[in-house]
Each structure stands twice: as structure tokens, then as C-alpha cells.
Task: structure prediction
Amino acid sequence: MAEIIEISRLALHDQVAARLRTMLVEGHIAPGAKLNERELSEQLRVSRTPLREAIKLLGAEGLVDLLPNRGAVAVKLTEADVMNTFEVLAMLEGMSGELAAQRIGDEELAELRAVHYEMMACFARRDLSGYYRINNNIHTAINAAARNPVLTATYSSINARVQSLRFRTNQNEAKWKLAVAEHEQMIEALAAHDADAMRKVLVAHVLRKRDTVLELLRAGEIYPKPTRKAST
Result:
């Protein structure tokens, strides 16, 4: 009985973490905002214990910062953070793609094609939330096909901190269409086992995301600029 309770408790905090992760990525919890435990407990209908365990998990992933005397705060990156993080991420994604093209098996490739078609269906419906979730699964699967656990661990920890920013890059129709076209190129390169083409398209894909994020940051569309109070 104790083992069943423990498994249930762990499953609950994983479920809570998944819901919080979506809220953070999709901006329902604003970057820089404090995670209010009382409000989140009521909203998610869970007690403080699994909520706190979920927040710790997201802290380890890099989606929230756990600050002394302030609690958990949704990660908020500066322009320099964005440039530095995406610079490294582009190289990691490129390496993932290069190795995946060399090592991917037929079953993995068939599964990736199927998931790609699911993503395309979300694009056709303009279902951004579903599209992003599946898109993230595709990038994770490419990374897994590289067969390098050190690369996977490094990629996962860095990518987590920019998930909410990546989500916002497809809110522009033209940029979204371009991202979809690049994903088509990825599938073609993987099928051809063309490591060089796969590396190039992934590096370009991530750097394009970086440029879009920087545009949005500078326009105040990600972190709205505070309005000045009228002088009295």
C-alpha cells in the first residue's frame, strides 16, 4: 500500500509539473512573475506539497529561478542571455542533427515522419499550442537519435530556459510558414542521411528563432515595457 501511495504522489507532482510547464511556455505565467503557491494550488486543485515538488522540478529544468527569500520566479532572460543561449543552442541542435542523420534507424525515421504529419495538421488548424508541443517532441526525438547522452543532457538543460521564447516566434504567420518549411527540410535530410544538410538546416533554424526573439524583445512584445505614470 505504501508503494502505491508513493507512486501516486510522484505521478501527481509530475502531472502538476506538466501543467505548470505549459503555463510557463505559453505565457500564462508571465516571465519574471512570482509563482504564487496559494493561487496555483486553487487553480490546479492540488495541495501545496505536490505543487512545491513540481516547482522544484521546473527549477532544475531551468524554467523557473528559485530565489532566496523570494520563492520561485518565472525565468526572464535579458537580450545578452538570449544571444548567448541561442548561440550555444544552435551548435547543440546542429550537432544533434548531424549525428541523428548518421545514426537514425528506419523505425525512428518512420515515427518522426508520422509525428511531423501531426505537426502539419496542427499548423493547418493554426493550433499553436498543439503545434509547439509536437514541434518540441520532434526536436527532442532528433536529439535522442543522435545517441549521445551527454549531448542530450546538455541540450535539455539549455533548451528549457528558452522554451517560452521559442513558443512566441511562431505567432507571426510568415515566420511560422518558414519554420514549417525548415522542418520539411529536416525530414528530407534525415531520410537521405545527409549529415551536413541536417546540421546546416538546424543551425539556421535556431539562429532564425534567435533573431525573431531579439526583434520581439526590442519591440517590447515579450516583456511589455512599463508604462510611465502621469506626473501630478
